[in-house]
Amino acid sequence: MQKESWNSMSIILVTLSFLFVFISQNVFSAPSSRHLCLPEQRDALLEFKNEFEIGELSRYCYSVGQPKTESWVNNNDCCSWDGVACDTKSGEVVELDLHCSRLHGMLHSNSKLFRIQSLRSLDISRNDLSGQIPSSLGNLSHLTFLHLDGNNLVGEIPSSLGNLSHLTHLILGVNRLVGEIPSSLGNLSHLTYLYLGINRLVGEIPSSFGSLNNLYYLDVGYNKLSGSFPRTLLNLTKLSVLSLSDNQFTGTLPSSLFTLPSLESLDLGNNQFNATLELGNISSSSKLKQLRLGNNNFIGSIPISISKLANLEGLDLSYLNTQGPVDLNIFSHLKSLEDLDISHLNTTTTIDLNAILSVLKRLVVLDLSGNHVSAINKISVSGPHSQSITGLLLSGCGITEFPEFLRTEHEIFYLNISNNRIKGQVPGWLWTLPELYDVDLSRNSLTGFERSTKHRLSNVPKPSMEFLLGSNNNFSGNIPSFLCMFKSLRVLDLSNNNFNGSIPRCMGNFIKRSLLVLKLGDNQLSGKMPDIFLSGRNLTSLNVAHNQLVGKLPRSLSSCSSLEVLNVEHNRINDTFPFWLESLQKLQVLALHSNEFHGSLQYHPKVASWFPQLRIIDISNNSFTGTLPSDFFMYWSAMSLEGNSSELKYIGGDYRFYQESLVLMNKGVELTYPMILTLLNAIDISGNKLQGEIPKSIGLVKNLIVLNLSSNSFSGNIPSSLANLTKLESLDLSDNKLSGQIPPALGSPHKSIQDYSFSQPAHRSDTARDTVSDPRFLVF
């Protein structure tokens, strides 16, 4: 999964970089106008400005500047405003460039902006615009450029855009658009550039696209498009770039696709294309430079004809089900190859790393993950290739030794040698590689970090390091203090090792600067949690579960305003419930179970919304006493409000190394959730000393999936408001003093709920521990 996420993020960044370069070359500056702008157009622009607030800079923008609309004032010529260009003769506004202008608000269909008929170019990309794309855009009949990418636009693409007969560039990517692609876009006969990627579009590619004879760039990747390969695209002889990646296309590929005369880049990765891969009568004169076919259902051998692609610079054949030996000599003819991904080939062939590097001298990125790789340490230290490797992925390759040849790869910035059998210590020279910023050493048998005299000075980590994963090894002793020199760390995962001692206070060095994720769970750490989070405003996830930590939670955690996950389960923390964390408006998971928390849960929040984003709260197996306040369940709006249950999102999903796991009692079994869906809403208050009635407000958390109130002393009637929990799948009220019946609605035939209301309690100490396999809770 990490591998696919890395490839996906790389494709997104490449696409965004291409768009950025294009936009930068077409930034419109207003020429000195001979006429003042038209008053009615000036008024329309001012009204458009007032429709939006100035918010934060979009994450898709690369530079920080003043919002262009700040120069828009009523007492001067609008042709002199930033982002506005006028016709030098008529004074009409013809170009409007407001990309990266921090605009926040709804794009209104009745905006007077859409009455400026003279507009030829409109760029309002990379802002925070919401709402639907107004159909009135189709009235701007002179438009040649329309850029709306990088916003939060929803709804369907209006068919009226097909009226823009002069349009050459249509860029609607990186939004939340749904529905089918309107066939009317096939009317845009002048269109050369069409980008609809990273949306939620469904259906097939319209057959009308075969009429787009001038199209050279088509990207509809990262949607939910389906059907067989759209053969209508074979008519597009000028097509240079085609991306259908990350959709649900099926069937076979026409061999004539690979002989399109102008095609330079073809990306069909991450679909469900099948059968034998055939490239047809492809010739050595082919212009293909990028060929991405990975992660489909192709079977059979690698086509020999690939060796004819002399201009090829990037090749992805990952997850090709070869079912036998692979002829690696095919790649020896690809002298221009810079990026090669032949991971997970399901082959019986052992890949000689030295042979590949010695032949492909221009190679800079190589992914052999999931194959058996030999000769890992027989490569000459001087290096057989002329250009240094920048990215090397050898995950799951059966490697038993740390790749010694890497000590001379001074350009490498991404290294993944996870899921191998590497033993011994991490060598000190690794930290001397000047460009290294991303390292995955997880799931090996490493025991420590080399600190020999030879490397004592040189192993001071470089400030460029941002991602370091060392989970699931055999590291022991104290957490090395030299790791604190990584002041730019964003993700540090040392979970599932044998580290002991206390959490180093020096970790505050990167917590206050850059850290997003800190995972130290499943070790043998002891002592108090250091109070080092005062400036941790970027911290998104903190997991120190399954250790031997004592004392109280550090109060500085209340300063971590971005915190989504706090997991301290299975320690010996002795504290009252952390009501003081109520200021954390983004907190989604709070796991305190199996500690020594105590005291009352009676509390009146000081803020209007107490944990509004909370989706999972597990405070089981502690010593909380007293009664639950009547409004205890009233404030958790994320569990109450209806959401889009058809869309799968993962907590922390924005960070490719962030796979936040959680142990949760569900249907009588203690389950480990490797990744947490936002659909999983759970409350577990079992194993405490609570009494009194269950508050009727429990019926407000309508999105609840798991509810466990067992092993307390609750009394009175089972609240009828439980009938509102129509999504509930697991309910445990056992080992209490309750009377009455479970509401009948919870036991209707269409429900799969498991009822443990009056059964013997399923204690964590004597239940099986399993890994969740429900496809809604686990990504494959």
UniProtKB/TrEMBL annotation:
What are the entry keywords?
Cell membrane, Glycoprotein, Leucine-rich repeat, Membrane, Receptor, Repeat, Signal, Transmembrane, Transmembrane helix
Residue span, Leucine-rich repeat-containing N-terminal plant-type domain = 39-87
SUPFAM superfamilies, per database record: L domain-like (SSF52058), RNI-like (SSF52047)
What is the name of the protein in this document? Uncharacterized protein
Q: Which InterPro entries does the entry link to?
A: Leu-rich_rpt (IPR001611), Leu-rich_rpt_typical-subtyp (IPR003591), LRR_dom_sf (IPR032675), LRR_N_plant-typ (IPR013210), LRR_R13L4/SHOC2-like (IPR055414), RLP23-like (IPR046956)
What is its subcellular localisation? Answer: Cell membrane
Return the Pfam families for the record. Answer: LRR_1, LRR_14, LRR_8, LRRNT_2
Kindly give the membrane topology term recorded for this protein. Single-pass type I membrane protein
Of the GO CC terms on this record, one is: plasma membrane
Residues in Disease resistance R13L4/SHOC-2-like LRR domain copies: 112-348
Q: Where is the composition biased (Basic and acidic residues)?
A: 763-773
**Position of the signal peptide:** 1-29
Q: Which parts of this chain are annotated as the region Disordered?
A: 744-780
Gene3D superfamilies with a match to the protein in the record: Ribonuclease Inhibitor
Residue ranges of the TM segments: none
Which protein family is named in the record? Belongs to the RLP family.
Superkingdom, natural source: Eukaryota
